[in-house]
Amino acid sequence: MSKLFFTADTHFYHENIIEHCHRPFSSVEEMNETIISNWNKIIPKDGIVYHLGDFSWRSSRKYIEELLNRLNHKEIHLIRGNHDDMTKLRWGFASVNELLNLKVKHKGRKIYLTLCHYPMLKWRYERINGILLHGHSHGNMRTGIKNTLDVGIDCCAFFPLTLEEILLRIKHKNYNLGMK
After folding, report:
1. From edge to edge, which strands make up the β-sheet containing 131-134?
2. Tell me: the pLDDT tens digits for 135-173?
3. Is the pTM of this model over 0.85?
4. 49/72 Cα distance (integer angstroms)
5. Bridge partner list, 12
6. Domain locations in the chain as residue ranges
7. Between vectors from CA 118 to CA 22 and to CA 85, what angle results, nearest 5°?
8. Which CATH number does 4-176 carry?
9. What is the separation of C-alpha 47 from the centre of its chain, rounded to a whole number of angstroms?
């Protein structure tokens, strides 16, 4: 089982996101509990999570600590989104970045990832068949750009994704685009 997980746009405590993104919840409490439950079904206590922004609408230490204590993880690396208040969110996460480039091994080969909250047309590893993972668009942006994927929970049935799931989605997306 993969110990790397990717997600974005959880928007914990954000009531308006339910209507804005047509999320199927009757309250922010129901949304929070569903996302926490889904997270904990997928991510083990020793999982490493890359959260690609817009973690929580409420950013006080009290609310963030409560969330982090309830979510399974060994480490959560936050890639800052437009709703992440950096003056309050530096603590509690293994790292906080605007953008992160990763090289990971998967089945004996190197996978080059660029992680950013925002979708981009060009990124560091694009020329070597690297993958751009992003959030922000809540599944509303269909660029057709090869090797990009919105990992926001609105695109993933409110679950985080494993690296294996990401690679399958990228392969399927590129095949549908008529690309190799």
Report:
1. 99-106, 109-116, 131-134, 148-150
2. 987 777 766 788 999 999 999 999 999 999 999 999 887
3. yes
4. 9
5. 56
6. 4-176
7. 85
8. 3.60.21.10
9. 14
